[in-house]
Design brief:
alpha/beta; 11 strands; 22% strand; UDP-N-acetylmuramoyl-L-alanine:D-glutamate ligase; two-stranded antiparallel ribbon; 9-stranded mixed beta sheet
Length: 267
């Protein structure tokens, strides 16, 4: 059995982060290995505390699984510590046989920056050149190219054509395939744009009306992409399958507490 690896943070509510990744791996019938880059105290209403994991312990976790388990693909989540990013890049760079899905978590869909500039630079310098596929949202794609990010609901950010231009430019700069995730404004269609190094493809699914939960969808998409790639799918087919997984997870989300919902699994 091919394995998948997640390098990300823990979600004590069990809906995002490593927990979401393991749920996706299990759905696809993949054994999931984990490297914790941070511990968080969180629930669907917010994050109340973050405990960073030292770079040395990140390295120890990577050394424990790489080269032992038959890992076909890995995905990364939010990485805040440049020293940990250096360790991650060093270890996974020794394994070119592993497909690498990098989710450069830098800017919230609200436009708020989530990590300091030195972290952005470490991701750009160390992780992107070795990535198989990166999955920025529209504001993150602009950050990767050194652009000024304004209103995330601005017309330029709602444009699939603008997303395609960003994807091509990121590929030209870093050499990786790029999936630019579409707008999330209430009046926008969420069209994800993939440039696989050869051609542009657009991927969209209908909005799920009044979902119980959407918390953890970005993590779930990256994990599903890793699982799809281990099945030998092309990037175009992997994106189609991963989006269908996330759409099904949102459609089947359910309540687990007062006003507290979690993602489900596709039927």
């Amino acid at each position: 059995m091919k394995c998948c690896l997640t390098i990300a943070g823990s979600d004590s509510g069990g809906n995002a982060g490593v927990q979401a990744d393991l749920r996706a791996f299990h759905y696809y019938g993949r054994h999931g290995c984990t490297v914790f880059a941070a511990l968080t105290a969180q629930n669907p209403f917010g994050v109340s505390a973050i405990h960073p994991v030292s770079a040395d312990f990140v390295a120890a976790q990577l050394d424990a699984v790489l080269g032992v388990y038959d890992i076909g693909a890995l995905k990364t989540g939010m990485l805040a510590d440049p020293a940990a990013i250096e360790v991650i890049a060093d270890r996974i760079g020794r394994h070119p046989e592993i497909a690498k899905v990098i989710d450069p978590v830098m800017v919230a869909t609200s436009g708020v920056r989530l990590v300091p500039e030195e972290t952005v630079e470490a991701v750009k310098r160390l992780l992107l050149p070795m990535a198989t596929l990166i999955t920025p949202n529209l504001p993150e794609a602009e950050v990767l190219l050194g652009r000024t990010v304004g209103d995330p609901n601005a017309e330029r950010l709602a444009s699939a054509g603008h997303a395609a231009d960003l994807a091509r430019e990121i590929h030209a700069r870093y050499g990786c395939a790029v999936l630019v995730k579409g707008g999330h404004g209430a009046n926008l269609s969420a069209v994800d744009v993939l440039f696989d190094g050869t051609s542009i493809s657009e991927h969209t699914l209908p909005w799920v009306e009044r979902p119980v939960s959407t918390h953890g969808t970005g993590c779930s998409l990256g994990a599903a992409l890793a699982a799809e790639i281990t099945a030998g799918k092309s990037l175009v087919e992997a994106v189609k399958g991963a989006k269908a997984y996330v759409h099904g997870a949102i459609s089947n989300s359910y309540w687990v507490g007062k006003n507290c919902g979690v993602l489900g699994l596709p039927e």
